[in-house]
Amino acid sequence: MSTGDHEFEAAQLHHQFDNVEGAQPQTDLLGGPLPTNRDLITDEKLAHGEVDEKAASPTADGEEPTEDEKRTLRHVAEHLPISAWLVAAVELSERFTYYGMSGLFQNYLQRPLDGSQGRGALGMGHQGATGLSTFFQFWCYVTPIFGAIVADQYLGKYKAIVLFCIVYLVGLLVLVLTSIPTALAHGAGLGGFIVAIIVIGIGTGGIKSNVAPLIADQYTRKKMALKTTPKGERVIVDPAVTVQRIYMIFYGCINIGSLSLLATPYMELYVGFWSAYLLCLCMFFCGTAVLIVGRKYYIVRPPQGSIITNAFKALGLMIVNRNMDAAKPSWQAAHSGKRTNVPWDDHFVDEVKRALVACRVFCFYPIYWVVYGQFSGNFVTQAGQMQGHGIPNDLMQNFDPISIIVFIPVLELAVYPLLRRLHIPFKPISRISLGFIVASLAMMYAAIVQHIIYSAGPCYDQPLCDASMVDGVAQGNHVHIAIQTPAYVFIGISEIFASVSGLEYAYTKAPPTMKSFVQSMYLLTNAFGSAIGEALTPVAYDPAILWMFVGLACASFTTGIIFFILFRHLNEKEEEMNALDADEYPPAPPVAPTEEKN
């Protein structure tokens, strides 16, 4: 290296010191400059490369932190862009519709139309109602695959969501028209219901696979950056923490929407099912309008053509060659002597491998979804076996979203920031494991409540028997319906850990061009859970259902432990896997020095 090169390096290093943010020139008593740190570095040391620029100068705000800074400084989140809030509002309206509607299905299907408002409609009995409502859940989580393919290969996420919103509205209209008293009296209820849930399932599946990745797409930063807070604290703006916050807020909006069950059970009871379904239709129409009107605010990524087809071709090469790197052009060139003509590069194969890691993690989720599915099915039936004291049995479901709305701010504003300040890692794998264990507590508590019901009169282990009839209507055993509340609270807390972390994992581990598809793979696990729930329908009768709750409690707890043992090593690779697509997006705007989080 020439002397001129040494002098240039020294000048560059001096310039970095002079431009450290917040540095003020110091003077002596005569007004002359005091020596700075850089003045203490001799030209001889600079010339021989003995000074590390990073060590000599703190990393400037907006720059990527060093490994030491990543370990020692606090990681914080950024503010969400307005487009992310608009996407959250759309999801809120969709979940308002979904839960406000499907939360009534058990009563709508199970109880007969007896002339009194809200008592029933189709009279299919407990097992028939549980079977058909479980099929609806299964269908809603199979169709996201179709929605993901439409988005990732053909339309893009935004246009796909608009299309499936229109399909959803058609299904809702069919449900409303076939649930009015005249239609029910003429036998249109069951046929209309089946058509409606098939069409609605296509709509909601297409929306679900795309709206979750679309909200995270609105946040563009992919690399960590340093900033100094107004209080003078050096912190790291961490995209992973921001994405975690995005999905916490997203899930909070989902559960605010699901509070529609505070209204629809009373509309069902005092007006009729049709009125509740009409409310859901109107709300979803408003959400669709927000989606369309706010289109200019969204960051929309175009579809990538045959990207999903390429991913499956790459997987085929991996399987045939029994090597995870076999699909890489570099591997093929090394083993065949010539470069194979494939429409992808090595980086794409690394992305597919990372997506496979996420899919392996998702394999355990069906057990969780079986437990989760109980709150809108068998828990509703259980509530109907107790004395309601004026509370509709399907109203109790609201304690699930209420608990989520209460605990999300507690975790996001207090618990998680405290853990980060103490440098205690709580990575997704750990959160998911905890979610499984908390879900097992919900099932254990449900089993205890079922035992209490069977221990009370007048019907004991055969609730709603003839001995409980009052004015021709069967009454529950002498147990207050409020005793069921903790079961819903446990389910809600488990969702914050398992479901929110699953959404986050599906987004962060998916290749940029396959976000919707990997999200659909995550949602598909819910369909498998519904299928298992469907298989359990034959034991959904009194008194056998108590032991079903016990079995689910044991299964969920055991799965949580096994899951953590198998995948805990992925916590250590979290940042490495998240960094794979850091250069796939345009750069984020500079860190605003006034943004303070946590």
Describe the structure.
This protein is mainly alpha-helical. The chain folds into 3 domains: 3-22 and 30-57, no CATH class; 71-306 and 357-581, Growth Hormone, Chain: A, CATH 1.20.1250; 307-342. Helices cover 62% and strands 4% of the residues. The chain contains 25 helices and 7 strands. The strands form 3 sheets. It has a 3-stranded mixed β-sheet with strand order 1-3-2. Strands 4-7 form a two-stranded parallel ribbon. A two-stranded antiparallel ribbon has the order 5-6. It is globular and about 80 Å long. The protein starts with a helix and ends in a 20-residue tail after the last helix. The model is unreliable at 1-56 and 583-598 (pLDDT under 50).
Secondary-structure topology with pairs:
Blueprint: H1 3-18, H2 43-47, H3 53-56, H4 67-72, E1 74-76, H5 82-102, H6 105-110, H7 125-140, H8 144-155, H9 157-179, H10 181-185, H11 189-217, E2 225-228, E3 234-237, H12 239-257, H13 264-270, H14 273-293, H15 307-321, H16 329-336, H17 346-362, H18 365-373, H19 378-384, E4 386-387, H20 399-421, H21 428-454, E5 469-470, E6 473-474, E7 477-480, H22 485-508, H23 515-535, H24 545-567, H25 574-578
Parallel strand pairs: 1-3, 4-7
Antiparallel strand pairs: 2-3, 5-6
Helix pairs in contact: 5-11, 5-12, 5-14, 7-11, 7-23, 8-9, 8-11, 8-23, 9-11, 9-14, 11-23, 12-20, 12-22, 13-14, 17-23, 18-23, 18-24, 20-22, 21-22, 21-24, 22-23
Descriptive labels:
7 strands; globular; transmembrane; 598 residues; three-stranded mixed β-sheet; membrane; Growth Hormone, Chain: A; disordered C terminus
